[in-house]
Amino acid sequence: MKKLCRRGRPQKDSYRPLHVVAVVDDRDAQDGEVCFQFRGANRQLLTRTFDYLIGCGHGIAQRVTIREAHDVIRRIGKNLQRIEVTLHEPNFRFASLSDMKLLIEATLKRLHPCHFQWLNLTKFFNF
Description:
Elements: E1 18-25, E2 33-39, H1 43-54, E3 61-75, E4 78-90, H2 97-111, E5 114-118, H3 121-125
Parallel strand pairs: 1-5
Antiparallel strand pairs: 1-2, 2-4, 3-4
Helix pairs in contact: 1-2
């Protein structure tokens, strides 16, 4: 139960909802790597999300690499940053690519309130 303020209303949630945009680059799926790119989510949130989904290597992949990437295009004087998550040796017997997308979205929403949107590559880089 939330604690009430002076005026009798509940306090506002301290979380600010995020707007997360993501894309899947599965061109290297045959090589044993699937790459997800995110905008709007911080590195700590993605680390917690993929630690939960990977587990001890028995989840959606054997291991994960999370790194920050920068766009070449500068808009309004700001360099747009994105976080690139690479799944090494994805376990497609555990979950297909569409199921992985659903699991990632559900885990992100469980850990932090956010609006989530999947885009294709051309829309993602022009967003």
